[in-house]
Request: fold
Amino acid sequence: MLPSDFTVFEERLGYEFRNRELLEAALTHASALRAGEVRTGERLEFLGDAVVDLVVADLLLRAFPACDEGQLSKLRSLLVRTQTLAAKAGDLGVGEWLRLGRGEDRSGGRTKSTILAATYEAVVGAVFVEGGFQRAHAVVRRHFEREITEGRLLAAQDWKTMLQERSQAELRVAPKYRLVGESGPPHAKVFTVELWLRDFCVASGEGSSKRAAEQVAARHALSSTIWDTARDEA
Reply:
């Protein structure tokens, strides 16, 4: 039996609905409807897809001022892909409240990535319809900000290559990485490197290897406004 109280879900979501029917529509899969019945959730999903794209683009634009359009597009694609949105739905516990047809429920619909991702978008769309863009922006930012600022979902990116391409194009100079410190026992060393552009140290990073520390420094450089100083001096 599905829970009838949405309080826990709304706490996880970061938004309390005045119109619970709107939330219920977002959480209703097409398999739970009668033949020919219009699924409001599909319209909310369509809207939510656009809202999530826009908010994530805005967050990335602010977080990485040194990234160009192509680099930002790659990062956004990583964050709004089905697997990532399904994980966000999982964090909210969407499967507990999801309304499914009996057949879809028996076939494991509550854990299917495509259904979870689509439902997440529908819920965001519902927030937008009731609360407007600012509330929807706040909800999506709540769910994605740590991944963007801490780089957890973006860890697979080759930040050094991205920075190299950017600095060569705009400054006509290659970044230089300098090892400035090692600490910790032999089995758990921590390396610290500085990243220099021309005569400016624009970022530093730490990691379990020199290469890992360089990747962290490059990511920090791409999100640093200090980088603009080096560009102005070019």
Q: What stands out?
A: Residues 7-150 form a domain with the Ribonuclease iii, N-terminal Endonuclease Domain; Chain A fold (CATH 1.10.1520.10). The first strand starts at residue 176 and ends at 183.
